[in-house]
Amino acid sequence: MGNSQESHDFNTSVLHSVLPSALTEAKVSPLAEGLRLYDTASHTTSVFTPIKPGEVGIYVCGATVQSSPHIGHIRAAVAFDIIRRWFLKLGYKVTFVRNVTDIDDKILDKAAAAGQQWWARAYYYEREFTRAYETLGVLPPTVEPRATGHMSDMIDLIQRIIDNGHGYVVTDENGEPTGNVYFDVASWPHYGELTHQKQSGAAQVDEAAAVADRMGPSVDAAGDDKYNPVDPADASPDKHDPRDFALWKAPKDTDPLDARWNTPFGVGRPGWHIECSAMSHRYLKDGFDIHGGGLDLRFPHHENEMAQTRAAGYDSAARWMHSAWVTAKGEKMSKSLGTGLSVPSVLAEHSAWVVRYALGGVQYRSMLEWSDQALVEAEAAYERIANFIERAGVALSGQPTREEIEAVPAEGLPADFTAAMNDDVNVSGATAAIFTAIRSGNTLLSKLTDHADSPEARAEVRAALVSVRAMLDTLGLDPLAEPWVTQGAAGAAGDGEDETPEHKALEALIGEQLAARAAARKERDFARADAIRDALAEAGIAIEDGPQGSTWSFK
Fold first, then answer.
1. How many domains is the chain partitioned into structurally?
2. What are the binding residues for ATP?
3. Binding-site annotation, residues for Zn(2+)
4. pTM here?
5. Mean pLDDT of all residues in 204-217
């Protein structure tokens, strides 16, 4: 990378290309004043105040591209995508940085075992992650830096830490640097402030944090950590203190020559944590609003990252946010535990919209239990949503444009939806608001008898349709937006030509029942007509009778 001016110019060009409106004057909604977010470091929820008015800088730890993405990885991506979308809806300019770890022990070891070049393996799986993000409607980051592209930044940062007296170089018997450099934890009195290592036994800890501590990596629970295996360099006898962690590592004998870099402190490659400090500073400068990632990164990765950034003389993130895990039968989903589900395999059986809904259907700090039932519920949610959008579109002889949906401001959304989103991005409450609006919309539709209905009634239906789609769009779920339209996932919400096979089958089956009920009513066999209606109701199907015939919707 070049100097800071080059970095600024690069960021400007990226903002222009990724978010064309990002350089216009921010018009932040008055609702932004009520946004409250949780902070891992303080264990409290507080009002969000940006460092720079009208702007939000977010750094989220991305993937270590060693193998295929699994549902646990993508849950974090979807969670922070929703958070980002809410900031955008509130009118903030958002600079969103998500890194790629394209060199580490796992990548090198797995590439060697498979007979691959390590960089080829990393790039292959980076592309697979990118496809997963795109397929599931995750917005592209403002910039997506790779670790291997920022070696000079990391080396400079390590040198600052050493110069400030918070790091040390391990030398051999001849006094020559070995390539191993460690952070001196004892020299940094603030170590532990993120994960509260030094808090007294009487300290208050909220229940969400307590659950996280019981389930996974935490310095509060001593012993082996099955979710977060120790970096081999962190177990070195050369360390001054067991808590010290690697900033730079001497290469293993098995490391290829092109996975080694020359530095003032010896040949080697970066430790796990240093890359994020270097890249967040490169693209977001000194101090930024939010650092995000999965809960399993809280310790040691984020604790170490906070310490080394501040020890280098830079401000760290003002707020740390962590998305909880995907669990399977109560156990954290993890490849090492053999319960990982790859995204390609899940998408082979379910539509991307349904998978995104299932992954983003609860608040980001809540554990998400992954099961067949969760996907069944997501399928049912899709049918209810698509059915309303389709019926409303037919009644109005067309859908509102995407431009109109996107233009709805935060204050134009229902109050129960915005209140939920401002409450630490409570997606469960926001989703409840969407279905409340759909129920109201279905009631309005039942009052329409034909296209000659009053302009007032049609305006009410149109307003309900715009509101529902705008709320869905805020969550990245408007069925008539990309990528769902291109994927054919709009299904029943579209014009009928791209309906899913499932919806077509359901439409046909229910249509037969409605036809049989209509015949029974014509023959004045009301007992049979009522029996058909009751059977459909028991299956979750609501019937609306009108002058033009009967229509159905999900309850």
1. 3
2. 335
3. 61, 276, 301, 305
4. 0.82
5. 52
